[in-house]
Design brief:
This protein is α/β, with parallel strands linked by helices. It has eleven helices and eight strands. An eight-stranded parallel β-barrel has the order 1-2-3-4-5-6-7-8, surrounded by seven helices. The termini are close together. The relative contact order is 0.15. Bound molecules: pyridoxine-5'-phosphate.
Length: 260
Protein backbone atom coordinates (compact mmCIF):
# COMPACT_ATOMS: atom_id res chain seq x y z
CA UNK A 1 0.00 0.00 0.00
CA UNK A 2 1.50 3.32 -1.07
CA UNK A 3 1.42 6.31 1.24
CA UNK A 4 1.06 9.94 0.18
CA UNK A 5 1.82 12.31 3.04
CA UNK A 6 -0.24 15.48 3.01
CA UNK A 7 2.08 18.22 4.32
CA UNK A 8 -0.40 21.13 4.27
CA UNK A 9 -0.55 21.27 8.05
CA UNK A 10 3.08 22.32 8.24
CA UNK A 11 2.06 25.41 6.29
CA UNK A 12 -1.00 25.84 8.54
CA UNK A 13 1.35 26.30 11.50
CA UNK A 14 3.52 28.75 9.58
CA UNK A 15 0.51 30.77 8.37
CA UNK A 16 -0.73 31.07 11.96
CA UNK A 17 2.15 33.53 12.46
CA UNK A 18 2.67 34.60 8.84
CA UNK A 19 6.38 34.05 9.15
CA UNK A 20 8.80 31.74 7.33
CA UNK A 21 8.88 28.86 9.79
CA UNK A 22 8.14 25.93 9.61
CA UNK A 23 8.75 25.56 5.90
CA UNK A 24 6.98 22.58 4.27
CA UNK A 25 9.98 22.28 1.94
CA UNK A 26 11.98 20.99 4.90
CA UNK A 27 9.65 17.98 5.08
CA UNK A 28 10.50 16.63 1.62
CA UNK A 29 13.71 14.79 2.52
CA UNK A 30 12.23 13.46 5.77
CA UNK A 31 9.11 12.11 4.03
CA UNK A 32 11.27 10.30 1.48
CA UNK A 33 13.69 8.97 4.09
CA UNK A 34 10.79 7.53 6.10
CA UNK A 35 9.68 5.49 3.08
CA UNK A 36 6.57 7.36 1.96
CA UNK A 37 5.77 7.27 -1.74
CA UNK A 38 4.27 10.65 -2.52
CA UNK A 39 4.01 14.23 -1.33
CA UNK A 40 0.45 15.57 -1.32
CA UNK A 41 -0.40 19.26 -1.11
CA UNK A 42 -3.61 21.24 -1.50
CA UNK A 43 -3.40 24.62 -3.20
CA UNK A 44 -6.61 26.20 -1.96
CA UNK A 45 -8.27 29.20 -3.57
CA UNK A 46 -8.14 31.02 -0.22
CA UNK A 47 -4.40 30.13 0.17
CA UNK A 48 -5.12 29.17 3.77
CA UNK A 49 -1.94 27.09 4.03
CA UNK A 50 0.09 26.18 0.92
CA UNK A 51 1.09 29.33 -1.01
CA UNK A 52 1.93 29.51 -4.73
CA UNK A 53 5.63 29.75 -3.91
CA UNK A 54 5.41 26.56 -1.77
CA UNK A 55 3.74 24.70 -4.62
CA UNK A 56 6.39 25.93 -7.08
CA UNK A 57 9.31 24.96 -4.82
CA UNK A 58 7.84 21.62 -3.74
CA UNK A 59 7.07 20.51 -7.30
CA UNK A 60 10.51 21.63 -8.46
CA UNK A 61 12.51 19.98 -5.69
CA UNK A 62 10.48 17.04 -4.40
CA UNK A 63 12.34 13.74 -4.57
CA UNK A 64 8.91 12.03 -4.65
CA UNK A 65 6.00 12.48 -7.08
CA UNK A 66 3.73 15.37 -6.08
CA UNK A 67 -0.03 14.95 -5.96
CA UNK A 68 -1.58 18.42 -5.97
CA UNK A 69 -5.16 18.70 -4.73
CA UNK A 70 -7.18 21.65 -5.99
CA UNK A 71 -10.61 22.88 -6.95
CA UNK A 72 -11.70 23.38 -10.54
CA UNK A 73 -11.24 27.16 -10.32
CA UNK A 74 -9.79 28.44 -13.65
CA UNK A 75 -7.19 30.63 -11.86
CA UNK A 76 -5.86 27.60 -9.96
CA UNK A 77 -5.93 25.32 -13.00
CA UNK A 78 -3.85 27.93 -14.94
CA UNK A 79 -1.20 27.81 -12.20
CA UNK A 80 -1.28 24.03 -12.00
CA UNK A 81 -0.83 23.62 -15.77
CA UNK A 82 2.33 25.75 -15.49
CA UNK A 83 3.64 23.85 -12.46
CA UNK A 84 2.97 20.39 -13.90
CA UNK A 85 2.80 18.23 -10.79
CA UNK A 86 2.79 14.49 -11.34
CA UNK A 87 -0.90 14.25 -10.50
CA UNK A 88 -3.79 16.61 -9.82
CA UNK A 89 -6.61 15.48 -7.56
CA UNK A 90 -9.71 17.57 -8.17
CA UNK A 91 -11.59 18.23 -4.93
CA UNK A 92 -14.64 20.29 -3.98
CA UNK A 93 -13.82 23.41 -2.00
CA UNK A 94 -15.94 25.65 0.17
CA UNK A 95 -14.57 28.73 1.83
CA UNK A 96 -16.17 28.12 5.24
CA UNK A 97 -15.18 24.47 5.56
CA UNK A 98 -12.41 23.41 7.94
CA UNK A 99 -11.48 20.53 5.65
CA UNK A 100 -12.72 18.86 2.45
CA UNK A 101 -16.11 17.71 3.63
CA UNK A 102 -17.13 15.31 0.90
CA UNK A 103 -16.37 14.12 -2.59
CA UNK A 104 -16.94 15.99 -5.83
CA UNK A 105 -20.47 16.07 -7.16
CA UNK A 106 -19.90 14.64 -10.62
CA UNK A 107 -23.40 13.45 -11.37
CA UNK A 108 -24.76 16.70 -12.81
CA UNK A 109 -23.61 18.75 -15.79
CA UNK A 110 -19.95 17.88 -16.21
CA UNK A 111 -18.93 20.04 -19.17
CA UNK A 112 -16.65 22.25 -17.06
CA UNK A 113 -15.12 19.25 -15.31
CA UNK A 114 -14.53 17.46 -18.60
CA UNK A 115 -12.82 20.52 -20.05
CA UNK A 116 -10.60 20.81 -16.94
CA UNK A 117 -9.64 17.12 -17.05
CA UNK A 118 -8.73 17.35 -20.74
CA UNK A 119 -6.70 20.48 -20.14
CA UNK A 120 -4.70 18.86 -17.35
CA UNK A 121 -4.15 15.68 -19.36
CA UNK A 122 -3.02 17.77 -22.32
CA UNK A 123 -0.30 19.08 -19.99
CA UNK A 124 0.71 15.49 -19.22
CA UNK A 125 -0.69 15.59 -15.69
CA UNK A 126 -2.45 12.49 -14.34
CA UNK A 127 -5.93 13.32 -13.06
CA UNK A 128 -7.68 11.92 -10.02
CA UNK A 129 -11.21 12.71 -8.83
CA UNK A 130 -11.94 12.85 -5.09
CA UNK A 131 -15.34 11.15 -4.91
CA UNK A 132 -17.73 9.73 -2.38
CA UNK A 133 -17.75 5.93 -2.54
CA UNK A 134 -20.81 5.32 -4.74
CA UNK A 135 -21.11 3.21 -7.89
CA UNK A 136 -22.58 6.17 -9.79
CA UNK A 137 -19.49 8.28 -9.07
CA UNK A 138 -17.14 5.45 -10.04
CA UNK A 139 -18.95 4.87 -13.34
CA UNK A 140 -19.01 8.58 -14.09
CA UNK A 141 -15.27 8.85 -13.33
CA UNK A 142 -14.66 6.12 -15.89
CA UNK A 143 -16.75 8.04 -18.45
CA UNK A 144 -14.71 11.15 -17.70
CA UNK A 145 -11.59 9.19 -18.63
CA UNK A 146 -9.47 9.97 -15.58
CA UNK A 147 -6.55 7.78 -14.53
CA UNK A 148 -7.34 7.74 -10.80
CA UNK A 149 -10.15 8.06 -8.31
CA UNK A 150 -9.70 8.77 -4.61
CA UNK A 151 -12.46 7.62 -2.28
CA UNK A 152 -13.42 10.03 0.50
CA UNK A 153 -13.15 7.90 3.64
CA UNK A 154 -14.65 10.54 5.96
CA UNK A 155 -17.84 8.55 6.58
CA UNK A 156 -15.85 5.42 7.49
CA UNK A 157 -13.57 7.44 9.80
CA UNK A 158 -16.52 9.08 11.43
CA UNK A 159 -18.36 5.85 12.17
CA UNK A 160 -15.12 4.37 13.50
CA UNK A 161 -14.63 7.32 15.82
CA UNK A 162 -18.19 7.09 17.15
CA UNK A 163 -17.82 3.36 17.73
CA UNK A 164 -14.38 3.19 19.32
CA UNK A 165 -13.38 6.62 20.53
CA UNK A 166 -16.65 7.66 22.08
CA UNK A 167 -16.73 10.73 19.86
CA UNK A 168 -20.20 11.67 18.80
CA UNK A 169 -19.37 13.93 15.88
CA UNK A 170 -16.07 14.32 14.06
CA UNK A 171 -17.23 14.82 10.54
CA UNK A 172 -19.94 16.81 8.89
CA UNK A 173 -21.21 14.14 6.50
CA UNK A 174 -22.98 12.31 9.30
CA UNK A 175 -25.82 13.83 11.27
CA UNK A 176 -25.48 13.94 15.04
CA UNK A 177 -26.90 10.56 15.91
CA UNK A 178 -27.11 8.69 19.14
CA UNK A 179 -26.70 5.17 17.84
CA UNK A 180 -26.36 1.92 19.75
CA UNK A 181 -22.97 0.19 19.40
CA UNK A 182 -24.42 -2.75 17.48
CA UNK A 183 -25.84 -0.45 14.85
CA UNK A 184 -22.57 1.46 14.58
CA UNK A 185 -20.61 -1.78 14.18
CA UNK A 186 -22.94 -2.80 11.34
CA UNK A 187 -22.60 0.59 9.70
CA UNK A 188 -18.81 0.30 9.89
CA UNK A 189 -18.84 -3.15 8.29
CA UNK A 190 -21.24 -1.90 5.58
CA UNK A 191 -18.95 1.02 4.80
CA UNK A 192 -15.90 -1.24 4.58
CA UNK A 193 -17.76 -3.65 2.30
CA UNK A 194 -18.85 -0.72 0.17
CA UNK A 195 -15.24 0.48 -0.19
CA UNK A 196 -14.06 -3.07 -0.91
CA UNK A 197 -16.68 -3.74 -3.60
CA UNK A 198 -16.35 -0.34 -5.25
CA UNK A 199 -12.56 -0.40 -5.39
CA UNK A 200 -12.81 -3.82 -7.04
CA UNK A 201 -15.37 -2.50 -9.55
CA UNK A 202 -13.14 0.49 -10.24
CA UNK A 203 -10.10 -1.69 -10.80
CA UNK A 204 -12.05 -3.81 -13.26
CA UNK A 205 -12.85 -0.58 -15.12
CA UNK A 206 -9.09 0.06 -15.18
CA UNK A 207 -9.27 2.98 -12.81
CA UNK A 208 -6.48 3.27 -10.22
CA UNK A 209 -7.82 3.66 -6.71
CA UNK A 210 -6.62 5.82 -3.83
CA UNK A 211 -8.42 6.70 -0.61
CA UNK A 212 -8.10 9.27 2.11
CA UNK A 213 -9.59 11.62 4.68
CA UNK A 214 -9.78 11.09 8.38
CA UNK A 215 -7.51 8.03 8.35
CA UNK A 216 -5.40 7.61 11.46
CA UNK A 217 -3.29 5.12 13.43
CA UNK A 218 -6.40 3.45 14.86
CA UNK A 219 -8.67 3.13 11.84
CA UNK A 220 -6.26 2.65 8.93
CA UNK A 221 -5.58 -1.08 9.08
CA UNK A 222 -8.96 -2.29 7.83
CA UNK A 223 -8.65 0.06 4.86
CA UNK A 224 -5.06 -1.02 4.20
CA UNK A 225 -6.28 -4.62 3.88
CA UNK A 226 -8.34 -3.73 0.80
CA UNK A 227 -5.94 -4.91 -1.85
CA UNK A 228 -7.60 -3.05 -4.71
CA UNK A 229 -6.85 0.30 -3.03
CA UNK A 230 -3.37 1.21 -4.21
CA UNK A 231 -2.62 4.30 -2.18
CA UNK A 232 -3.70 6.27 0.87
CA UNK A 233 -3.25 10.02 1.32
CA UNK A 234 -2.97 10.96 4.97
CA UNK A 235 -2.29 14.34 6.58
CA UNK A 236 -3.84 15.33 9.89
CA UNK A 237 -3.03 12.23 11.93
CA UNK A 238 0.59 12.00 10.75
CA UNK A 239 1.37 15.68 11.35
CA UNK A 240 -0.41 15.57 14.73
CA UNK A 241 1.72 12.60 15.84
CA UNK A 242 4.87 14.24 14.53
CA UNK A 243 4.48 16.98 17.16
CA UNK A 244 5.26 14.33 19.80
CA UNK A 245 7.66 11.95 18.09
CA UNK A 246 8.92 13.74 14.99
CA UNK A 247 7.80 13.50 11.37
CA UNK A 248 10.10 10.67 10.35
CA UNK A 249 8.96 8.33 13.13
CA UNK A 250 5.30 9.29 12.61
CA UNK A 251 5.57 8.27 8.94
CA UNK A 252 7.49 5.09 9.79
CA UNK A 253 4.74 4.13 12.25
CA UNK A 254 2.06 4.71 9.60
CA UNK A 255 3.99 2.80 6.93
CA UNK A 256 4.25 -0.08 9.40
CA UNK A 257 0.44 -0.26 9.59
CA UNK A 258 0.11 -0.37 5.80
CA UNK A 259 2.14 -3.54 5.27
CA UNK A 260 -0.09 -6.28 3.82
N1 LIG B 1 -7.13 13.24 0.38
C1 LIG B 1 -7.73 14.40 0.00
C2 LIG B 1 -8.24 14.51 -1.40
C3 LIG B 1 -7.85 15.47 0.89
O1 LIG B 1 -8.46 16.60 0.52
C4 LIG B 1 -7.29 15.34 2.19
C5 LIG B 1 -7.34 16.49 3.15
O2 LIG B 1 -8.58 16.89 3.38
C6 LIG B 1 -6.68 14.13 2.53
C7 LIG B 1 -6.61 13.10 1.61
C8 LIG B 1 -6.06 13.92 3.89
O3 LIG B 1 -7.02 13.97 4.88
P1 LIG B 1 -6.56 13.98 6.41
O4 LIG B 1 -5.82 15.26 6.66
O5 LIG B 1 -7.84 13.88 7.16
O6 LIG B 1 -5.66 12.78 6.60
Amino acid sequence: MKLGVNIDHIAVLREARKIADPNPMDALGIVKRAGADQITIHLREDRRHIQDSDATDIIKHSPLPVNLECAMAPEIIDIVCELKPHRVTLVPEKREEVTTEGGLNILGDNSKLQETIQRLQHHEIEVSLFIDPTIESVEMSKKLNVEWIEFHTGKYANIYAMLFSGLDKTHHTLPELELPRKELAEMLEEELTNLRVLSCDAMEMELRVAAGHGLNYQNVEAIAEIETIEELNIGQSIIARSVWIGLEQAILDMKGLLIR
